[in-house]
Structures are given as C-alpha cells and as structure tokens.
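Quarterly update from the structural biology core.
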Amino acid sequence: MKTLNRELERYLSIRRGLGYKLNTDERILRRFIEFMEQEEAAHISTGCFLRWKEAFGHANTQTWSRRLTVVRIFAQWMHGIDPRHEVPPQSLIPGHVRRSRPYIYSEEEIKMIVEAAAELPSRNGIRPLTYSTFFGLIAVTGMRISEAVSLNVADVDLENGVVAVRKGKLGKERLLPVSTDTAERLVAYAVERDRLNESTPSAFFISDHGERLDACAARYNFAIVCQRVGLRPVQKFFRHGRGPRIHDLRHTFAVRTMLNWYRDGKDPAQEMIKLVTYLGHEKPAHTYWYIEAAPELLELASRRAEESAAREVES
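Predicted structure, tokenized:
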C-alpha cells in the first residue's frame, strides 16, 4: 500500500506540473486508497471500485461518473507500472455527464447572501468580514472559487481597482478591473482584516485563524448561509444539503452580463470576446453555453436572430 501512496504523490506532482488543478481528484483518490487499505487490497480492480461505491454513500450518477473517471486515469497510470492493476471500464457507470443548468440568483438573493454572511459567528470578527466580501467579489466578477481563495495581498491593486488572477484554470493569468464601489469594499476589507489579524497575511482572504481561506470551508459556509436565507433546506449534523451553489454566482454574472447586452442593443458577437477573456474561459463555446442554459437568454438570442433574418429579407 505504500507503493500506491508513493505513486499517487508522483502522479499528482507530474500532472500539476502540466497545469492541472487536482484538488478534487486528490481527495477522491486518497479516499479510494484508504478504502483499499481497509480491504487490504494491493491492486486496483473493478470489484474494489464497486465495493467502494457501495460503501461510500449516496451520490448521483454524474458524481459517480466523475469519480470513476478520476480513478480510471490513475488506474491507467498504475497499470503501466504493474499490469496487475485493473482499469475499470468507462461503461461501469452508464449515462452521459451533462452540465447542470445554472441557478441564476436575483439581485435580492445575492444581497441576502452577503448580508447573512456578515452575520456568521466568529471568535474575532474575521469570518463574517471575509465571507461577506468573498461572496460579494465572486458575484460581481464571476471569479472561480479556486481563483478567489488563491488571491494574495499583492494580487489586489487597491489603488487602481484591478485584481490579478495568477492561478486561473490551466495556469492562465488575467487582470480583472473592478468598479469603484467594489474597489472601495476591498479596501475596507483589507483595512479591517489587518486590524483584526495579529500578523500581516500573504493571502488576501483569510479565516479566523489568520490562514488562507480554504475552498471546502468556503463552500460549507456558503451552504450554511443559503440555509439561513431559505435557498437550501436546513440540514442536521452540519450537512450542506442541496440547492444553489457558490459557483452559480459565476454563472449569474455571465448571464446578467449577456442579458444587459441584449437589453442595451449591443451586438453579443462583438462583446463576447470581452466576456470570454474576463471569465478566463479556454474556448468561446464555454461562454456561449450560457445562452442555451438560461431560458431568458435563449429567448432574447432567438428574437435577435429572427429580427436580423427579417432585415436581410427586406433588403
């Protein structure tokens, strides 16, 4: 079993060196290997994966399809080292993985989330200050949660209102100009954070303990806030429950930006490259997906296409 853990470290190191973000993959693989240790299984097998799935607990098909893919890639790596490792077939979990339709927050819901985050309990006042600012920044910039937690103090130009994303998807960097109101809120957060914290942090967003904010903790606190404002059902035993996600703040930003283009009479084809760049998407198709995912956007796009076709006929 030591060999599996040693090879996992090497596997993660090499793939991260290629630009992959593997935090979720790492958690999945470590839990799978822990299960193998409990079974005293020396080699990966389809049967072992199925028993792990049975013991793991409830999750939807999409989630298990994702976990299977993660285990399969690692199993392929291990099979190349030792053929006794079996690669579970992709057909083990049938069904095509589909992107979930995003939840689009109303302005009032975002306001409730930020205000509820500002009421979170804290031992020194940093937790509510951090999360209200953190959720608000994602809502007005569309940043990924991984990008927001990775921000350092030096990445946020408080004087010029520019946020530098150093650790974007696949290692890409980009600059995000923010509005005057957002810049002022970030300045206020930085001042109060430094006043409450005993030492000068390198991370821009910190926890009550003065450490960099963790993505898992951010998702947990977001779930708690959503339960308090009625966007998720209240859960026992500190469970997240089901409902709108923090990542849907990014979706909301993208959809509302596009909606404003149509309402202002702008040409989405000309504006799209700006949004693609701002969001840090690898391909424009990833941004155009929002048109199909949001019914109101699809209706506006269809109407615009019909009007354009009618003008061409008239001319």
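The chain has 13 helices and three strands.
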